[in-house]
Structures are given as C-alpha cells and as structure tokens.
Amino acid sequence: MRGLVLSGSVHPTSSVRKAAEYAAEALREAGAEVDLVDLGELGLPLHDGRVEQLHHAEVLAWVTRAQRAEAHVWVSPEFHSSFSGAMKNALDYLWSDHLQGKLVALIGVVGGAMGAVNTLNALRLVARSMGAWVLPSQLSLTSAECKQGLSDDNRERLRRLAAEIVRIAPRLLEVSEQSPVE
Ligand SMILES: Cc1cc2nc3c(=O)[nH]c(=O)nc-3n(C[C@H](O)[C@H](O)[C@H](O)COP(=O)(O)O)c2cc1C
Hints:
8 helices; six-stranded mixed beta sheet; 6 strands; alpha/beta; binds flavin mononucleotide; Rossmann fold; 23% strand
C-alpha cells in the first residue's frame, strides 16, 4: 500500500511536520510505503485557477506524488478554526482524478485546548468533494505535544489509525473501481 502524508504547514520549525513524521512512521510500521510531502519544501505557487499552472514543475511534482498514492493522510494546523491556507492551496491543485476512491485520513494540530474538530470537519468536506472516502477515525494533537513527543495514548491512537488505513484503503479502491463515487 502506497501512502502519502501531507504536512500542511510552511513554518520552518513546524509542529505539524513533527506530527506528519509520527504519522509516516506509524504507517510504515503498519506495512505501508510512505511518501512524506512537506508544503514548506514544495514551494507551490498560489493557485489562480489557470490550467497553465498545472505545467509548473513544482505543481506537476505534487500532483504526481498525490496521484501515485493509494491513501492520503492530511495533517494541518488549525488557523482561526479551520485548516491552513497553504493546505487549501495545495489541495486546490487536486481533482477527483487524483483522489477518487482513495482513503483520506485526517490529523489536526492546535495551539489551544479546544481540539482541532473544526479543522478536521472542514478538511472532511474538501476530501469528500474530490470523491475520496474519509476515514471516520481522526486525530487532534497539540503543537506542544508534537514537539515534545506523543503521549502513550496518542501514540496508540495513531498506531490504530495507521492500521485502519492499511487494512481499508486497498479494499475501497477495489470497490470504487467497480462503482465510481458520484
Ligand atoms: C494565524 C494563526 C491562527 C491560529 N488559530 C488557532 C485556532 O483557531 N485554534 C487553535 O487552537 N490554535 C490556533 N493557532 C495555533 C496553531 O494551530 C498551532 O500553533 C499549530 O500547531 C501551528 O502549526 P506549526 O507549528 O506547523 O506552525 C493559530 C496559529 C496561527 C499562526
């Protein structure tokens, strides 16, 4: 199973990147091949809706990596009760051609104590609109915990999330090939 983990922050010392590394490690331990995409390293131009932008080298690289993966894990910071602008920009380059029938799992990273539920719900809507199956299980982490190291409970939640992805994603792809999502 080829998994892609998307780190949706461009911060140079990002806690979201740390969360993405934990997710990548958990997926590898569950048996997946993992491609970790860091938006801070990709340097995507701001999407203005023109198709010519799809020929831009960085855009092509991102879209190819996204398409190659059989399941995605999107990891985003919460910015004002939603996901980051960098994340939205990257996702706007994708269409159902790249995500149809694939599993997308979500992780939100917050500074505060309220949890990332708004970010997770907003991302769920975007993934659904591109024909992806969004995993019901999701994870909310604090940036402090991401930097200091995950608690045993969250490490276990992440382990279970990764195991679900590896178990379910290939089956969803098989089913979706027979009956494409409208
Ligand atoms: C513009 C901005 C808005 C933020 N809004 C929220 C918020 O609504 N709720 C929250 O819990 N944390 C909020 N935070 C804190 C970030 O979610 C948190 O620090 C996050 O982990 C940052 O990720 P990074 O380390 O990759 O930059 C905000 C931070 C910024 C810069």
